[in-house]
Every structure is written in structure tokens, then in C-alpha cells.
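Need residues for this backbone.
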């Protein structure tokens, strides 16, 4: 979900997971599965295991396959250091 947040150009990814879910996932089986998993995790020890959640596993597999083709984010262009070099030299000479 964090990758989707960045891809959509929303800026810094929020830390609260529920914000990602509420903003990026429409109502439906995946969102319901995440809600059920979070409720189960809140009521169990951190190391507790549970059965595989098909809707969630399928979504994760699909996202990984989608992302295998390469980054979908625009790469940031590296600035030309000449302007900074010139500014620094001017500062040293003054």
C-alpha cells in the first residue's frame, strides 16, 4: 500500500496503516480481509500465527508481479553540480 501511495503522488506515506487502507482500498473483500486480520492480531500475542488469508495473499502476489516489471515512480534527475560549485567558489572568494 505504501508503494501505491507513492505512485499516486500523495507525498509522505502516513505511518498509521488504517489511513493507507481507508484512502487506497475500496470497500470489498480485500479491505474486509485486512480488517479481520487486524482485529485478530489485536486480540492475540504478537507471535501468533493464523491461516493464510486468500484475498490478502492473492493481492500481495498480484502487486509483486506488477512491480517486477520495474519501478513505476519517476526517477529523480540528478542536478548539475556546476551551479552549486560556482556558488561555493563565489562564496569562498568573497
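Answer:
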Amino acid at each position: 500500500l505504501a508503494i501505491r501511495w507513492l505512485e499516486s503522488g500523495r507525498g509522505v506515506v502516513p505511518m498509521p496503516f488504517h489511513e493507507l487502507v481507508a484512502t487506497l482500498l475500496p470497500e470489498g473483500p480485500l479491505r474486509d480481509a485486512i480488517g479481520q486480520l487486524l482485529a485478530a492480531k489485536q486480540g492475540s500475542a504478537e507471535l501468533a500465527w493464523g491461516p493464510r488469508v486468500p484475498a490478502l495473499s492473492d493481492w500481495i502476489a498480484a502487486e509483486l508481479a506488477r512491480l517486477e516489471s520495474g519501478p513505476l515512480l519517476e526517477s529523480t534527475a540528478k542536478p548539475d553540480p556546476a551551479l552549486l560549485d560556482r556558488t561555493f567558489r563565489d562564496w569562498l572568494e568573497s
